[in-house]
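Researcher: Last one for today. Full complex below.
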Amino acid sequence: MFFHIVLERNMQLHPRYFGRNLRDNLVSKLMKDVEGTCSGRHGFVVAVTGIENIGKGLIRDGTGFVTFPVKYQCVVFRPFKGEILEAVVTMVNKMGFFAEAGPVQIFVSNHLIPDDMEFQSGDIPNYTTSDGSVKIQKDSEVRLKIIGTRVDATEIFCIGTIKDDFLGVINDPTTV
Amino acid sequence: MTDHYNKLVKLAARAFYDDLPAKSENQPKTGRSDNRGIAVVILDALTRRQWVREEDLAKDLKLHTKQLRRTLRFFEEEKIIAREYRRETAKGAKIYSAAVAATADGQTTKEGEEKVKLHTHSYCCLDYAQIYDVVRYRLHRMKHKLKDELENKNTIQEYICPDCGKRYNALDALRLISFEDEDFHCENCNGKLEIESDKLAAQEGGDGDDNARRRRREKLKDMLQKMEIQLKPLVDQLSRVKDLPVPEFGTLQSWEALASAAGRAANGDNAGDSRNSHLGYNGAPMPYSGDTKVVVDFNGTEGKGEGIKSETDGKPVKVLPPWMIRSGMVLTEEQRGEVKQETKMDGTSTSSTAQYTEDKKSKVEHDNNTNIQDEYIKAYYAALLKQQHELAEAAKKEELSNSQTADDPSSSISIRQVGMKTKREEDDDGTEWEDAPIGGNGNGNGSYKAVDLNVEADEAAADDDDEDIDWEEG
Ligand SMILES: [Zn+2]
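Model: Here's the assembly. Have a good evening.
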């Protein structure tokens, strides 16, 4: 699920960036620093959308670096148990398959793949129905439901299922 | 068709809400607080009604209102009943009563049942269309959940290292992939992990032994089977109801309008009809709105366009319907200066508090209704005459203002409302004569209230008597 929230961060800026463009430098450094990171609490920071407030800089003793407290708005993505996501398959093996929904990695174990889909090893490992009409392989797009998350301080990993109504392949790369 | 739906409701009630209060109450049960099954009783009662005022329902079921409300709130959350709230005076209550009377399901409230104050009333009604969906959805979810567990869906796959015995689960998957082959490998010994087979519902029992798992599985199967058997009647009823049109009562407002219209049509012109009709829904004047007319006349300030006076005067003395009598009495009392006494004591609108009222009460009790009626009428006419006299002589501005305020509400035909307003003014003014008459309305209010409490019907009569006595004194 996406959220638009305000976060705060203390930015350290090297004195060489001081000058007319200090603010711009600060903002671009902020984006470089936080976009794409993940915190267990807020999820993945997808994009910084605005600066709320930049506090007074504090010069650090001995270094000349200045610390600015920056409040910024950003879009974060946080997966939840029970959430339905659309994801792209990245890897298929006999244990199941891995998929990505944006920054989130999801593993679907083979017992959460419908029973009528069998693992086929080979050049392109895949899960296929007996009549061959549905196939899951690398780059397939699937709709899945998250049934568990593992949230660490800097990492979120999910496991999902496609063994339910309206879940499964939504776009087969071989037919496109 | 409604029968089928009602049966559905009853079955669902017994299947799902049988143990309802037990769930919500934390405190240990004493014999008295054991309310098991109350939900079923309430739902059954609702199948015999359409829109019902919750207080009335509580009274009918001999339940405490709070208790009823708690259950109803739960049903509301369950989406099986619709509720409506509105702040209303006696008028609103009357509209509802009229509508109820029109539905003719034996729930008729007493005539003259009215309210003193502006109260928030809540009404409830079964929402059959939604019940149908809710029950189906519930069944679906129940089945789904059991099947999921049975098929080990939504459980987290476990893996075990055959070499060192270390266990992993699917959440570790990312760490376990090795990029040499596509298998999962043990972090310790790099052995190939194997799927923990037959890992049924292991998550719940920890690493529960196989026996526990098997037992659990048996239990689930058993539950699923039992469910199918025990809920069969409900499922059958659902399919029976499937193609039937759903009973719709609409919103409270539209239902009232419909019901009272139907009632009027059915009743023709008899007295009962007139009683209902003056409850006109939007406050649009109804043909028989005798109450309103009387009020206007009394105030005298407003146009008598309605011909109230003539109507009342012209009538030969005969037994008036009770509602008429009441309004008449109110008027006379108002006219009278006697109200002054009442005002003093009157802080409360219900005159019953006044000691002199009590005297009257005793008297009243002796009287029979018929006698009372006759007396009322006589007193009423006498009072009317006197009133006119007084009005002619002393047309005070205050009176005017009073009457005007009184008249404004008349647009909505609510006597009670008028009474309330005037009463307040009266309080402000203190002991003034003309104001005092309005106090009569206050009495009227009191009687409404009493009547409203059904139980105290006698008291209401007593109030009437009070008024009666006043006239006699006058
Ligand atoms: Zn190992």
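The mean pLDDT of chain A is 91. The first strand of chain A starts at residue 2 and ends at 13.
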